[in-house]
Design goal:
rod-shaped; 94% helix; transmembrane; mainly alpha; membrane; transmembrane helix
Amino acid sequence: MTFWKHHGKVVMSDEQAREGPLGRKVLYVLVASLLLVGLAWVILEAWWAYRVV
């Protein structure tokens, strides 16, 4: 528990020092776009399977 807390704190401060707020925002946008693409892919796959069968 203490190790994970300490490790998380170190990683967080390292990210803040390296990327800053802008880098963090870009990272969030990338993750969100990846999730949207994955969701759209699943929907298209389901629609295609439904259409073919």
